[in-house]
Design goal:
It is built from 13 helices and 5 strands. It has about 325 residues and is mostly helical. The protein has a 3-stranded parallel β-sheet with strand order 1-2-3. The chain has a two-stranded parallel sheet with strand order 4-5. Helix 3 packs across helix 12 and helix 9 packs antiparallel against helix 12. The longest helix has 30 residues. It binds tryptophanyl-5'AMP.
């Protein structure tokens, strides 16, 4: 039987998801379910590479899982699970670490950024982070990985390490390709840096319509539009980029023409954007609340996902051990 090509992706449970996660990755995860065998993971072991509070990790894991489901990941078609429930990820990561030159890890942009942001905690896990990411993907022999632009370097690394494994021990893993969405880099409300929870420039998926409006209303637009009567350039406006993700072609034309002619003010444009955002985000938010009221449902889905995936991961590890010359040692 021809199996559908396999997709794998994951997000860290570092807090609630934001519209950058949604537009950059999650939306395409949902679409890919039609054509791929999809595996979506909450990568909790990755999240401990920065300091965290053990008392709320489980809650954050479940929050992210609810985000996947609310956005439209369908547990009937896709497997949803938590990384630490399948320990073979970390086992394969150890094997891959023996194929990885340290210098390569030190050159990763994300490592350099995070080392700067967490100067007092530059730990080995932060350095070897991409190795575990490569193992996440390879343990299921995944062929494609939908992510935002910031993960491209990590995927290049993943291709590199599986290529090395295949060369040294015989072809076992496909080289996973990157799938970028149509909004691979969503800027934050500051219009300068990538949207990110830690920078505080984000719009969270769980935020209410009022909260979203309180963030949109003062957000930066084209700096040329100081007064209501100043014409602007939509291409220089960060919120016009949001319009592109949420609004209809007709609204886009209205916003662009009104901005260039100063026929509309930025606040008019923001109100329209808010309205279109609500059309997509309000139902999602409702589903989030409904799932929050049924925590057992989410836990069952995660458990079923892990139960389906663990045998696949164990099979891959058995093949890896064979290739490495590590026998199956009896344990009794
Ligand atoms: P994480 O948790 O930082 O982000 C999750 C996903 O959201 C995308 N993303 C964005 N896309 C566009 N604009 C933004 N502002 C934005 N912010 C976040 C990210 O590109 C990502 O796709 N290392 C990964 C997690 C991971 C993983 C994996 C991913 C672990 N193992 C295996 C794929 C495959 C990460 O930190 O994502």
């Amino acid at each position: 039987m021809n199996r559908r090509p396999r997709v794998f992706s994951g997000m860290q449970p570092t807090g609630g998801l934001h519209i950058g996660n949604y537009l950059g990755a999650l939306k395409s995860w949902v679409e890919l379910q039609d054509d791929y065998d999809c595996i979506y993971c909450v990568v909790d072991y990755h999240a401990i590479t920065i300091e965290h509070d053990p008392r709320d990790l489980q809650a954050r894991i479940e929050l992210v899982a609810r985000g996947y489901l609310a956005a439209g990941v369908d547990p009937e078609r896709s497997a949803l699970f938590v990384q630490s429930a399948v320990p073979e990820h970390t086992e394969l990561a150890w094997v891959f670490s023996s194929l990885t030159p340290i210098g390569l890890l030190g050159r990763m942009t994300q490592f350099k950024d995070k080392s700067k942001d967490h100067e007092d905690n530059v730990n080995a896990g932060l350095l070897t982070y991409p190795i575990l990411q490569a193992a996440d993907i390879a343990i299921y022999k995944s062929e494609a990985v939908p992510v935002g632009e910031d993960q491209q370097q990590h995927l290049e690394f993943a291709r590199d390490v599986v290529r090395k494994f295949n060369l040294r021990y015989g072809g076992l893993f496909p080289e996973p390709r990157t799938i970028l969405s149509s909004a691979p880099k969503v800027l934050g409300l500051d219009g300068e840096r990538k949207m990110s929870k830690s920078l505080g420039n984000d719009i969270g998926l769980e935020e209410s319509a009022d909260e979203v409006w309180r963030k949109l209303a003062p957000a930066k637009t084209d700096p040329a539009r100081v007064r209501r009567t100043d014409p602007g350039d939509p291409e220089k406006c960060n919120l016009y980029r949001y319009h592109r993700c949420f609004s209809s072609e007709q609204t886009l034309q209205w916003a662009a023409a009104g901005c260039r002619s100063a026929g509309i003010g930025c606040l008019d444009c923001k109100r329209k954007l808010h309205q279109h955002m609500e059309e997509q985000l309000a139902p999602l938010r409702e589903r989030l609340l409904d799932l929050q009221a049924h925590p057992d449902r989410v836990r069952e889905i995660l458990a079923a996902g892990a139960a389906r995936l663990r045998p696949i991961a164990q099979q891959t590890m058995a093949e890896v051990r064979d290739r490495l010359g590590i026998p199956r040692w009896p344990t009794t």
